[in-house]
Amino acid sequence: MNTHTPRTVLITGATAGFGRAAARKFIDNGWQVIATGRRADRLDALQAELGNALHIACFDIRDEAAMRAALDALPERFAGIDLLLNNAGLAQGTQPAQDALLSDWKTMIDTNVTALVTLTHTLLPTLIARKGAVINISSTAATYPYTGGNVYGGSKAFVSQFSLGLRADLHGTGVRVTVIEPGMAETEFTVVRTHGDQVASDKLYGGANPMTAEDIADTIFWVASQPPHLNINRIELMPTSQSFAGFQVHREG
Ligand code: NDP
Ligand code: 8X3
Fold first, then answer.
1. Which domain holds residue 211?
2. 146 is catalytic
3. What distance in angstroms lies between residue 129's CA and the mean position of ligand 1's atoms?
4. Which end of the chain is more exposed for a tag (fewer CB within 10 A), N or C?
5. Would 124 be classed as within a structural domain?
6. Å from CA of 1 to ligand 1 middle
7. How far apart are CA 227 and CA 70, in angstroms?
8. CA 114 – CA 109 distance, rounded (Å)
9. Cα-flanking dihedrals φ and ψ of residue 35, to 5°?
10. Which residue from 12, 18, 41, 43 has its CB within 8 A of the most atoms of ligand 1, so it is best to mutate?
11. CA-CA distance, 36 to 14, in Å (whole number)?
């Protein structure tokens, strides 16, 4: 294996969905994984499942002091991070802007934007020293607006554009940057978005044959497995059952 190939990945949001599937995928393929998230019981279960190639760090990614403490507490074996997978994120609410909760908007910005840039900024020196890589999870919502998408789409547009800008800034360092923009995938995403409405989640995904967390983990791992001279800039992917619709037009009377 090429010595520049990343070997230790820090995955934010590894207690569910894409992040948990990615933790399994990377460990199955011989990597070491640092798995983060707020739910300690989920992290403990992952530790029991995946063994000592996994290090778990339980913290709220919006808590900068907790994030720094978790990084400072990394065992030496895990301290050389080669790949940062910025995956933790969420949507909150499906209402149009005029009916949305400001608290939901702030939660999305704090998680999807502020926490992501804070962790990235913190790890850049390590990633540059190791000629590592960053993979950011954005969304099709970054490009295609839909009603009720408001701040979620805005936060993901930030993630996509930040990724491209990061790539430009890291020119010549050997650090690779990729943004992955998935469409509909069945995870806990919609239960979280609806503040716990499993019925709404089942209704959204029912009969739609959505992508799975494993589909996205496979894509993430494929990106990470490319040779060092190759940078995948961005990937947009959807289930075959999902596509585009036209503009809406409001008519008087
Ligand atoms: P899940 O809800 O299944 O998983 C989200 C993960 O993010 C959980 O592990 C959760 O951990 C973590 N997380 C959320 N908030 C915080 C926080 N404050 N601190 C620490 N961890 C946090 O959703 P997905 O796997 O679907 O989502 C992963 C990413 O993919 C998100 O960025 C999402 O926006 C994006 N995405 C999802 C799509 C989909 O259709 N599912 C499509 C496109 C993009 P915990 O709750 O334990 O803290
Ligand atoms: C999640 C996909 O379509 O719900 O990022 O915005 S969508």
1. 8-236
2. no
3. 29
4. C
5. yes
6. 31
7. 30
8. 6
9. -110, 130
10. 18
11. 6
The enclosing domain of 232 has a CATH number of 3.40.50.720
Residue segments in the chain with a per-residue pLDDT below the cut of 70: 1-6
User: Each residue of 216-237: pLDDT tens digit?
Assistant: 999 999 999 999 999 999 999 9
Ligand at minimal distance from the CA of 243 is: 2
Nearest-5° Cα angle at 22, 78 to 13: 75
Locate 172 and state its tokens. 């010549």
Q: What spacing in Å lies between the alpha carbon of 145 and ligand 2's midpoint?
A: 10
pLDDT of residue 4: 41
Specify if 88 maps to a domain. Answer: yes
Q: Which two tokens stand for residue 174?
A: 């050997």
Give me the residues paired with residue 10 across strands.
34, 84
Backbone angles phi, psi at 5, to 5 degrees: -70, 125
Angle (CA) 37-16-104 rounded to 5° is 70
244 is a domain residue: no
How far is it between the farthest Cα atoms of the chain?
Answer: 68
Q: How many domains is the chain partitioned into structurally?
A: 1
Q: What pLDDT digit, counting tens, does each position of 150-175 carry?
A: 999 999 999 999 999 999 999 999 99
